[in-house]
Each structure stands twice: as C-alpha cells, then as structure tokens.
Specification:
The protein contains 12 helices and 15 strands. By secondary structure, it is of the alpha/beta class.
Amino acid sequence: MKLRFVATLLLALVASTASATEPIRIAIIDTLSGPFAREGRAIVQHHRYMAELINREGGVLGRPLEILALDNKGSPQESLVLLRHVADQGIQYIAQGNGSHVAGALVEALERHNRRHPDRQILFLNYSAVDPTLTNEYCSFWHFRFDTGADMRLDALTSFMARQAKVRRVFLLNQDYTHGHQVSEIARRMLAEKAPHIEIVGDVLHPIGKVRDFSPYIARIRAAGADTVLTGNWGNDLALLVRAGKEAGLDVDYYTFYAGGFGVPIAMGSAGESRVFQVTEWHPDLPDELDLPEMAAFAQRFAEATGGETPWYFHRVGTQMRMLAQAMREAGSTEPAQVAKALEGMRQDTAFGPAIMRRRDHQLLQPLFISVFTERARHKVEGSGLGFVTVARIPAEQTAQPSSCAMERP
C-alpha cells in the first residue's frame, strides 16, 4: 500500500512538472495557400517573431509560447475542420484574421464548443477580421479583436475625405463577402452624414480572390466619372486593382485600408504619388514626435529575421501578443476564461499612445494614422521608391464607435 502511494505521488509530480513546462500553443488558422498566401505567411512570421521575443524574456509563467500554422485555404468550412483538430489536440488559443466570414464561423463554433466542453475551452485572438458585427450583435466573451473594426477605420477615412475639396464623386469597389458588404454600407452612411456634397457614383462588389483582370472594373470607374475610389480590398485583390488603374492611366485618388504592403506599393509605383491613402495603426514614417528610434530598430530586426522577405506591417500582432502574455501573468493562469477576464479593460502604453481593450465588446481601441503614398517619405517600401507620410492622426479614444454588444459571460 505504501509503495503504491509513493508511485502515485511520483506520477502526479511528473505530470505536474510536464504540464508546467510544456509550451502554450497558439494555432493560427488562416490562408497559407492560394492568392492570399503571402498575407498568411506574413502573419505567421509576425506571431513567431513575437513568441520568440517573449520566450527569450523567460516565456509566460515559466512556459514558452509555440505558434502552429494551419492552412484553412480561405474557407470557413475548412476552418471548422481545423478547429475540431485544434480542440482534439487540447490547444486553448486560436488566432485568425484574413476573412470576416471565416471569423464569424469560428465565433459561432467556439460558443457551442465552450458551452459543451467547459474543461477544454478555447480563446479566439482576432488580428484582422474587421466586420463590425463581430463586436456588436455577434460579440462573444471568447473573441477579442486586436485590429480596428471597419466602422472605426471608415469613420477616420470619411472624416478626412469630407475635408478634401477634390473628393466629389466616389466609386465604392469591394470584395463580395461580409467585409466588402460592410465597407459599402458603412461608407455610404458615413459619407451621407458627413459630406452630403459628395456623390456616390458607383457601388460594385467583385468575387474575392478570383479576379485576375480588373480592367473591366477600371472601365466602369472611368465611365462613372469618379475622382475617388474607396475600397476595403486587401492582398492580391488590392494590388491587381491599383495595377490595372495604373496601366489604364486612371486619374483617381484611392482611399484604402491596406495599401501599405504585400505587393500594393510596388504595383502602384510612381503612379500612386500623392493619390493613394491608407488608414493603419502603424507605418514606418510616423510623425517626428512618435517615430522613436527603438521602433525603427525593431522593424529592422524583424525584416532581417525574415531574410528581408517581410516588413513589419501587422503592428497589432505585437500588441496582441504582449497583451496576451500580460493577461496570463495577471491571471496567474493560462486557462482561457481566466485570461479573458484579465484581458477585459486591459491598457497597454505603446510608443504611439495607449491601447485599451474595451470590456463591453472586446474591441481594441488604439491610435490610428492616415497616410499618403509619396516619394517624400523617409522610409521607402517594397523597392517602390515611395513610402507613406502621415496626414492625420486619431487618438485611441476618438476611434471608439457605439456598440450594441450584449455579451454573455460564463
């Protein structure tokens, strides 16, 4: 009997030690193949770089972070299959962002899973899916968005556009899925409220990731007599759009969410000079009072770590990973429910101002910058000879939008 007790105690101690040192795994479920593979690979690189930095500092609660990359091929259905695999492996954290339609499916599935399996709960870290419904009618205790919602981005963009004398006739062109529909609807409403003198002369949706030749859309923009294109397009769909506009000599300004990376700057080249705008949480040429030497050095080290393949672009991933680690330490646990409670209301002071995770809907409030593509930039991007220079700055508290979230907490 005594030997059996000792053996049981030793087994328990071994199990406890293994649990205390095993990695904290975060599964990235995103597009790693097809037309948006470059964005997916970059996201993985950003996460792994941040995990390595945190691990060098001792990890979290004595445990290292480990990033697993899973290819969902841009499909909600494939994502749900991968989610079941993640749950079976006992992984407690997932991250996703490229595709609000995918994020919506994951949120719904996680709500069911976490109710049915309180001993195997999973937390969702959203770094790019910006559909406002994810923090409104479909908000979830298990979902945290570290990107800025489409309504928040559009509020910044449309306020700026309303002050530009040359913006008179706007053409809306967006991808035909949840995000694109939201951009179209919100842009129409906000422009009507802020600038009734601006006319919407076109509102077109196109298949996501399937258009190889945007020249027919460019022809429609020209025929409509537009002076401005407002688009929430990202990745290859944005690069091909601006390239087609350049080749056709289209004389318009572009207002975008994602013009700063992944093939878009080089596609624009000199044709984008002073006519392409973006709204982001960071870009290399911040105002002088914010462009801290350590941030420039950080971006340089990241670029070197990726062999020059990828620039530091998804700054929100850095914020996400730091806040996650801080929440785990404050909770003294890696259990998702405890970490979620620690994340709620968390504030992180960044080089650009405070970032605050709003408790009500789990939407991160962070400073935003509107910038224009120009050769005047100090930091050139993608070998284009141009970069982005800030033309407007929005403090975190001014980015907040009303929320209808009625969250159920465990």
